[in-house]
Amino acid sequence: MKKIKFIKRQDSGFKLSYGNSGETSLNLSNEIFDFISKGALSPGEERNVTFRIFKEDCIKAMSFVIMKLPLYKSSSNYSNRVDNYLEIFGELYSKIESFFGSNKEAEYKVSLLYRPDGRIYLKGLRVNGFSIRDYLVENYSALQFDNEGNDILNLRVLSDIEDNGEYDDESQELEDVVSKPLQQIFYGAPGTGKSHEVKKRTGELSNDEERDLPNVFRTTFHPDTDYASFVGCYKPSMRKTGKKHQVDGKDVDDEEIIYEFVPQTFTDAYVYAYKNPTLTTYLVIEEINRGNCAQIFGDLFQLLDRKNGVSEYKIKADKDLAKYLNEELGKDADGIKDGKLCLPANLSILATMNTSDQSLFPMDSAFKRRWEWKYIKIADAHKDWKIETNGEDWYGFICQINRIISNMTSSADKQLGYFFCQANEDGKITTETFVSKVIFYLWNDVFKDYGFEDANLFKYKTLEGDKEVEKDLTFPDFYDEDGNIAPDVVKQFIEHVMAWEKDKKKGNN
Fold first, then answer.
1. Could you tell me if 428 and 284 lie in one domain?
2. What is the pLDDT of residues 185-238, one digit of tens each?
3. Are residues 302 and 342 in the same domain?
């Protein structure tokens, strides 16, 4: 029976920028590497390999690329030329014709590199203008390697694998090659869409529709989160004894109190990853800096050092956890071999961090350096939301108030992101929401800490008898005597914000 291996890449996006080395290389897992090299390559060595590639596959893949391009044209990961589909179609087809000519198949000669640092990949994928990477679309494409060609492996391009990913041959395996950071913290101001980015990464968000996935495990850190609530601990529960007693003439099962290990989010994700080695498992930590990471992670901190995706330094599991893992994974399974823990390469840990809350539980530098960091910038989400009070454009208000905050604080940490609050279905942010969320935040978390430096911004006009007077603005002034919101005061404040044009010493507006 022929042996087959698959790579389903999550980041093998369509690229046309020839100067980008990312489109001429392809990372490999140890298993795929062994399949291609047959173990005849040592760290630091490189050798040429030859695949048999098929023209029909590439033509089908080219058509699929063109079909999927509209989904990706707004992404910064793709070429700016994606609007001209006919040009791209012609360019891809000419590469195929030049590479294959009149032949149905061709030999594709590239290099297999085993770096001294342990990284393994195919390099030099662009041959005479042709690169297999040009015919792959992230999340939808796969490469199939099989040994039916004996000394020369067949290399097939598969498309639409997300929708048609069931394979009949029992020997086929789907390999999810993880080339994105395995531990990453998405950070930025409140409301920038950090959780949204995480959901896109995990696949929970598809075409703006959210879905629950069994390979995604979530938790939120807070000041009371500890190792036991993150990993697990022994807890009391009730168990039937097999005996019965009578109550009001009826048989009732006898129960007794027992103690058993109850796994929490980390352990659930850890077990799932080892039980599903061909699937990327995601452990998502929301608000990671709202908990004491040193206390929560404990000695798991050591596992965050990874080499080829696997923990470089294993740690000894405590007896309770080791017993549970032995029962779940099997004795001496990789996840608990010799009683030690080791993060697998298919377990990715993603976290969010609100920069306005950095002072809650500061992270030490040793913990920080074990993560990749991705800043989520404040940007227009193009929702066309309006503030109900006076019809002001929401993003326009955000830009202006953020200039003021930057001027006062010399920092972006306290600024507002587009999703700081949500609009109704009609696209309007109600006056109630605006006051209770936006103005309350500004008064209690921004202006209170940094002072009310712009006098004009914090004044409002009101009637006292028949006379209009100007008063200093305080937060209670946004409500009338009956506790209802005073829309005129809210409107005046928004107008003052939008008219703010001062250039202060601390920053430029």
1. no
2. 999 888 999 999 999 888 887 666 788 888 999 999 999 999 999 999 988 878
3. yes
- DSSP label at residue 299: G
For residues 350 and 483, membership in a common domain is answered with: no
> What does pTM read for this prediction?
0.60
Q: Which of these, 126, 112, 98, 121, lies nearest to 19 by C-alpha position?
A: 126
Contacts of 136 (CB under 8 A, 6+ apart): 9, 12, 13, 14, 61, 65, 143, 157
Same domain, 262 and 351: yes
> Is the same domain home to 368 and 400?
no
- HSE-up of residue 38 (Cα within 13 Å, Cβ side): 8
CATH, residue 256: 3.40.50
181 part of a folded domain: no
Coil, helix or strand at residue 420: helix
CA distance 303 to 316: 11
Domain boundary among 147, 175, 203: 175
Which value, to the nearest 10 degrees, does the dihedral of the CA atoms of residues 423, 425, 426, 429 take?
A: -10
Please tell me the distance from the alpha carbon of residue 135 to that of residue 308, in angstroms, as a whole number: 26
Here the contacts of 94-103 (C-beta below 8 Å, separation 24 or greater) are 95/129, 95/130, 95/134, 96/55, 96/58, 96/59, 96/62, 96/130, 98/128, 98/129, 98/130, 99/127, 99/128, 99/129, 99/130, 100/55, 100/58, 103/55
Q: What is the CA radius of gyration of the chain?
A: 29
Gap between the Cα atoms of 460 and 497, Å rounded: 12
Task: Name the token pair of 152.
Answer: 């020369």
In the chain, how many domains are there?
Answer: 3
**Could you tell me which of 365, 212, 225, 379 has the C-alpha nearest to residue 290?**
225
Q: How many CB atoms lie within 10 A of CB 31?
A: 14
Of 357, 377, 221, the residue nearest 287 (C-alpha): 221
Shared domain check, 213 and 125: no
Which residue among 375, 410, 433 closes a domain?
A: 375
Strand-pairing partners, residue 130, are 127
Are 266 and 359 in the same domain?
yes
Note whether residue 183 is domain-resident. Answer: no
- State how far the alpha carbon of 432 is from the alpha carbons of 340, 387, 437, 491, in Å: 54, 10, 8, 12
Contacts of 51 (CB under 8 A, 6+ apart): 107, 108, 110, 145, 152, 153, 154, 155
Q: For residues 244 and 131, what is the distance between their CA atoms, to the nearest angstrom?
A: 72
Query: Is the domain of 57 the same as that of 37?
Result: yes
- Is 420 within a domain? yes
Query: By three-state DSSP, how is residue 485 classified?
Result: strand
Any domain includes 180: no
Q: Note down the domain range covering 344.
A: 191-375
Q: For residue range 225-266, what is the model confidence (pLDDT) as tens digits?
A: 999 999 999 888 787 888 888 888 888 888 888 888 999 999
